[in-house]
Specification:
- The complex is a heterotrimer.
- Chain B is mainly α.
- Chain B has a domain of 215 residues.
- A two-stranded antiparallel sheet of chain B has the order 1-4. In chain B, strands 2-3 form a two-stranded antiparallel sheet.
- In chain B, a hairpin with a 2-residue loop joins strand 2 and strand 3.
- The longest helix of chain B has 27 residues.
- Chain B starts with a helix and ends with a helix.
- Chain C is mainly alpha-helical.
- Chain C has one domain.
- In chain C, the strands form 2 sheets. Chain C has a two-stranded antiparallel sheet with strand order 1-4.
- In chain C, helix 1 crosses helix 6, helix 1 packs antiparallel against helix 8 and helix 9 runs parallel beside helix 11.
- Chain C is globular.
- The mean pLDDT of chain C is 83.
- Classes of the chains: A alpha/beta, B mainly alpha, C mainly alpha.
- Chains A and B meet through helix 2, helix 3, helix 4, helix 5 and helix 6 of A and helix 6, helix 7, helix 8, helix 9 and helix 13 of B.
Chain lengths: 255, 340, 301
């Protein structure tokens, strides 16, 4: 059984069918890519998985349990973390505070604990700090810990989002265009970072437009066009698939 | 940490305040009492507005609930005022809970308007003597003074200590709150609600918690106000009062506890200094608000990045935090359910 | 039944006033996404300036003179339109790139400033406004006697609303305003001078609000510097009811609120009248925040 299973997923916005009858699975420990032309519905699928939208039809199950319709923060504590297509960091807060946000759902103390500072609360805070620093180390941003997020470079901000997602101790991490705005060198180190994530036992599902990254790092690729799935397979299979070629090169073929 | 700028500020303030009763006359002491009261109100509103970023322009409603709860229970059932302090807090907190639940999904501006509406409805209800309890536009009189171990707190000097000790306690507890998981959660909510939710923060829960806590504290301030004035009436809880509290927080430094203190000194104390100019004061007040927003909109004492002391945590290697094995998500879900 | 009809027409007249003020809120919100807290004070300014004009140029107060009244209304509208433009340039324009909260605070500050300026200039007590400028004879409609005044006021508001509606729908600037209200960025990319659109909105909105203030003064014969508060909040409720940012919505909302309030005051209670308006506001915001005529806008994640 797959870690994440999507069956006949459909979502409409008014008259527009953004996602139409999409089904695919993500095996535990794999790296899967979701690609397609702009407007294909990729981010909508992500938003459906992470609970930002409710599906109109279809099922989403994670670890065998249905998660469709659950609140986003509940889905996160169930083990699915995400990054956003447009960077959504807490800009005025420090990098460390940003990563601690991910840690939030793995902690327990509330108002009383904060005001009275029980030993348990203090231990929890310390463990959280250690864990957050480790996450920053993982993306090589330890030095920026006390710097405000908005002061980081674009590429580093993307990495910070990744660190925040990893701090939630997820089983599956969903990356929405993680290489956006990165140059060749940064993309290569991103690839090795993604592999390191997988090597730790975390499954990765990502959306990307950078084809070279997708081909190099993904084990399986799912292709969407106008909300429907048009192909699924290994990078080799996808590269040679007629439908995919048509979808991407489309009109030019007709000249 | 001891010698940080904030620490020095608090120390200086404490010394100045401790010396005040010896130096100032009763009039100015009473001004400081007002400053202190608005400091408490400002700090309570700061949790909602400054930390959580929720536009609340009806905070006077919570103040009123606390004050009137105290007044009613004290004048009708002779319950001692100090016992009513927590009761008023709970009453105001409950009121806050009832208010926030239906409006939890509202966006910034709309939330603002609703809070204004709530403030007005409360004021109108008070004037109309709702349930026959509130005494209409004349309000309630004859509220007793607080008794502490046989000592009656009656003169401005006594209230000075009561109020400023309460302020100190509030500053202490709320500072701790800021440097905690709860405080961070409020900030995440403020900075980007979608990202907060997407990082695993239960935004609905924290919006509610911010309102309830802020309301409860304002309610307790209401108790102090009621027993200090011994008479309360609806005019003390108007929209203008809410605007004052709002201004104290925003101009002082939204999200910054020292900022709120500075704000209350400026907004409440300064006009007293310029009493001679009477009506032109308000004109200047309005103009000052506009100018502040144009030239220094973070407030006089802006909130700064939360500092962490990181020495001694060097044992963190470049290891990734352990991923949750299959068993863990289930138990973490349990834990997540028990989270306050 | 007669009681109902009286209250209904009364409600329409009041509603017309609310609609005029609501239009100011809704146009500003539509284009700038800002709740102009100072709008109610511009309404009040209309009444006060009208008073000054009437006492200075007594010919304007000549009883029953259509030209006189027309001129009075026009002058007040022009003066307050100018005031509105000044307000925009000083308190709002510098904050166009600032976070939303700053503009809200600035608006509050502007409101406080205007209110107190009027209080300093005119005094804090209620001022009397000459009341016999508009005819007070009752007119018989469907067997019921309705004050002509009420009809005239409703007629004038209706006239102005229609004028604005045609302006927005038919003229180029009107279309520009509608475009900017939908998407400022796209509008400016299409060559629309957004700055001029904003200025226009701040000329039209306050002008209508001022006219409303003058009409209220003419109807009730007394004014005070706080009248903008109550009317302002109710008008805002009307704007939200109809769909904030939606111009026909503001008109519908205003009339609807006026009628609901009049009927409520008559059949439920007068002292809770204001609370009714706020309750309507809160309920609308919770249940259908986009209002009766408004549209849902989704946020891209």
């Amino acid at each position: 059984m797959s870690l994440l299973e999507i069956r006949s997923l459909t979502k409409r916005f008014g008259g527009l069918v953004a996602v139409k009858n999409v089904s695919f699975g993500v095996e535990a420990g794999s790296i899967v890519g979701l690609i397609g032309p702009n407007g294909a519905g990729k981010t909508t699928v992500f938003n459906l998985i992470t609970g930002i939208y409710r599906p109109d039809e279809g099922e989403i199950s994670f670890n065998g349990k249905s998660i469709a319709g659950l609140a986003t923060h509940t889905i996160v504590s169930n083990g699915i973390a995400r990054t956003f297509q447009t960077i959504r960091l807490f800009q005025n807060l420090s990098a460390l505070d940003n990563v601690l946000a991910g840690r939030h759902c793995r902690m327990k103390s509330g108002v009383l604990g904060a005001m009275l500072r029980y030993p348990r609360e203090r231990r929890e805070e310390k463990a959280a700090l250690v864990s957050a620093l480790q996450a920053l180390d993982f993306v090589h941003l330890r030095a920026e810990a006390q710097n405000q997020a908005k002061n980081l470079s674009y590429g580093n901000q993307r990495l910070l989002e990744l660190a925040r997602a990893l701090a939630t101790k997820p089983q599956l991490v969903i990356l929405d265009e993680p290489a956006g705005g990165m140059n060749e060198q940064e993309t290569t180190s991103l690839i090795s970072l993604i592999r390191k994530v997988r090597d730790r036992g975390i499954t990765v599902l990502l959306i990307e437009h950078d084809m070279s990254l997708v081909m190099r790092v993904c084990e399986k690729i799912v292709v969407l066009e106008y909300g429907s799935k048009i192909a699924e397979g290994s990078p080799q299979e996808i590269k040679n698939d007629e439908e995919v070629v048509r979808a991407y090169l489309g009109a030019e073929q007709e000249d | 940490m001891r010698f940080s700028r904030t620490g020095i500020f608090y120390l200086a303030l404490a010394l100045l305040l401790a010396a005040s009763p010896l130096v100032l006359n009763v009039y100015w002491l009473d001004v400081l009492n007002s400053v202190g009261l608005y400091a408490i109100l400002g700090l309570s509103l700061n949790i909602i507005l400054g930390d959580a970023g929720l536009f609340n322009l009806g905070h006077a409603a919570f103040y009123a609930v606390g004050a009137y709860t105290t007044a009613i229970l004290n004048t009708r059932f002779q319950i001692p005022v100090l016992w009513l302090l927590p009761v008023a807090g709970v009453a105001a907190g409950l009121f806050g809970l009832i208010i926030v639940r239906p409006i939890i999904r509202l966006r910034g501006d709309y939330l603002c308007i609703v809070t204004v509406g709530v403030g007005e409805i409360v004021r109108i209800a008070l004037i109309n003597d709702v349930f026959g309890l509130t005494g209409g536009s004349n309000g309630i009189l004859g509220i007793q003074r607080p008794h502490l171990f046989g000592f009656i707190i009656r003169r401005p000097q006594h209230f000075f200590f009561l109020i400023w000790v309460f302020v100190a306690l509030t500053v202490f507890l709320f500072t701790r709150l800021q440097h905690s998981r709860f405080g961070r959660a409020l900030n995440y909510l403020r900075e980007d609600e979608v990202a907060a939710e997407g990082s695993g923060v239960n935004t609905a829960h924290y919006k509610t918690a911010a309102f309830v806590l802020g309301a409860a504290w304002a309610g307790m301030a209401g108790t102090i106000f009621a027993t200090k004035m011994t008479i309360i009436a609806p005019e003390s809880f108007s929209f203008w009062e809410s605007v004052l509290m709002f201004t104290v927080v925003i101009l002082g430094g939204s999200g910054s506890i020292p900022g709120v203190l500075v704000g209350s000194f400026l907004i409440i104390g300064l006009p007293e200094v310029f009493r001679g100019f009477a009506d032109a004061r308000m004109l200047i007040f309005g103009a000052a608000m506009i100018l502040m927003m144009i030239f220094r909109n973070q407030g006089i004492v802006p909130a700064h990045v939360r500092p962490y002391s990181l020495e001694g945590l060097a044992e963190a290697e470049s290891a990734l935090p352990e991923p949750a094995a299959s068993a863990e998500p289930a138990e973490n879900l349990q834990a997540a359910k028990e989270v306050r | 039944m007669e009681q109902f009809f009286q209250q209904f027409t009364n409600g329409l007249a009041v509603g017309g006033i609310y609609a005029l003020v609501a239009l100011g809120y809704t146009m500003v919100y539509g284009v700038l996404k800002l709740i102009n807290f100072a709008h109610g004070d511009l309404f009040t300014a209309g009444a006060y300036l009208g008073l000054t004009l009437v006492t200075t140029f007594t010919m304007l107060a000549h009883k029953g003179s259509v030209l006189g009244i027309g001129l009075l209304i026009l002058l007040v509208m022009l003066l307050v339109a100018f005031l509105g433009a000044v307000l925009e340039r000083t308190a709002y324009k510098p904050l166009r790139k600032s976070p939303r909260l700053s503009v809200v605070v600035s608006a509050l500050g502007a409101s406080i400033f205007l209110e107190n300026a009027m209080m300093l200039i005119y005094g804090a007590r209620i001022q009397v406004f000459p009341q016999d400028i508009l005819p007070g004879i009752p007119v018989r409609i469907f067997g019921v006697y309705i004050p002509l005044l009420r009809i005239v006021i409703f007629g004038l508001s209706f006239l102005m609303m229609t004028g604005l509606y045609l302006f927005i729908q038919k003229t180029r600037i009107g279309t520009a305003i509608r475009a900017a209200a939908i998407d400022q960025g796209a509008a400016s990319l299409m060559g629309i001078n957004v700055d001029r659109v904003i200025l226009t909105v701040f000329l039209l909105g306050p002008a209508l609000g001022a006219a409303a203030g003058l009409l209220v003064a003419l109807q009730y014969g007394e004014i005070n510097f706080l009248m903008g508060w109550s009317y302002g909040l109710k008008a805002f409720t009307a704007a939200v009811l109809g769909g904030i940012g939606n111009i026909p919505g503001a008109m519908v909302g205003g009339l609807l609120l006026g009628v609901l309030e009049a009927l409520g005051a008559a059949y439920i209670s007068t002292s809770w009248k204001d609370a009714i308006a706020f309750c309507v506001l809160i309920i609308v915001l919770i249940v259908r925040p986009t209002g009766l005529l408004g549209e849902r806008v989704a946020e891209k994640v």
